[in-house]
Specification:
There is one protein chain. By secondary structure, this protein is mainly α. It has one domain. Helix content is 67%, strand content 0%. Helix 2 packs antiparallel against helix 5, helix 3 runs antiparallel to helix 4 and helix 4 runs antiparallel to helix 5. It is elongated.
Length: 145
């Protein structure tokens, strides 16, 4: 069995080309499943650390997948920087301890976490539902998956 062009390591480490809905959902559901598995294995005491490390490891692969999916619907993949950047700010707040400082910093971090989660949910649903461009577009050939 051969891997379709653009899949394999290129799926996670290249922002060129296009990605169809099936490939996008496969990535999203696999990432969520893996995140749940990691959190179950590490337990509640190390959950924040595991979440932060998993998030850091997923920044670039997520950017690549979002960029390709955006390009499939004729939107510049550069918008993926904003999509992933919102989540990256949430990770930075947790990693630096900003989110655990009492008062305004903690409230701001909590609001930002909700903004980050809503951003990912809305964008993931939209990109998972919107059909790609039929045939070739300026970003490449129509993806197989």
């Amino acid at each position: 069995m051969t891997v379709p062009e653009g899949y394999g390591p290129a799926l996670f480490f290249s922002d060129e080309g296009r990605l169809g809905r099936k490939g996008f959902w496969a990535f999203a559901l696999t990432a969520v499943g893996f995140a749940i598995l990691v959190l179950l294995v590490v337990g509640p005491r190390r959950m924040v650390l595991a979440h932060t490390l998993f998030g850091i490891l997923m920044i670039y692969p997520s950017y690549c997948v979002f960029a390709k999916r955006l390009q499939d619907i004729e939107i510049s993949g550069a918008w993926a920087i904003l999509i992933v950047g919102i989540s990256a700010v949430d990770l930075v707040m947790g990693l630096t301890g900003f989110a655990s400082r009492p008062g305004f910093p903690m409230k701001l971090a909590q609001v930002w976490m909700h903004v980050s989660n809503a951003n990912l949910a809305v964008v993931t649903l939209a990109l998972g539902i919107l059909p790609g461009t039929d045939g070739a577009n300026r970003y490449g050939l129509q993806p197989g998956l």
